[in-house]
Amino acid sequence: MKWLVLKLSQNRCLFDQSNVAHTLLQSTQPTVHAIGAAMKENLEISEQLLD
Fold first, then answer.
1. Are 9 and 16 in contact (CB under 8 A)?
2. Distances, alpha carbon 51 to alpha carbons 32, 33, 34, 45, in Å
């Protein structure tokens, strides 16, 4: 399986990253919402790798 790791707020703590993703997911703009979804997925993958 190939992993795609994106630089989406990686210089911020996980709490901040989660808050940003949540806020972006609330947007009605498709591009902004998609970035939030990508951030959320990236966070989920990061959590799996840390376990």
1. yes
2. 29, 27, 26, 10
**Choice between 29 and 3, residue whose per-residue pLDDT is larger:** 29
Q: Using 50, 70 and 90 to split pLDDT, how confident is the model at 29? A: very high
- Gap between the Cα atoms of 20 and 24, Å rounded: 6
29, 37 Cβ separation under 8 angstroms:
no
9, two tokens:
């707020």
**pTM of the complete model:** 0.76
CA–CA dist 48, 27 (Å, integer): 26
DSSP 8-38: SSTTS-HHHHHHHHHHHHT-SSHHHHHHHHH
Q: What DSSP state is assigned to residue 24? A: H
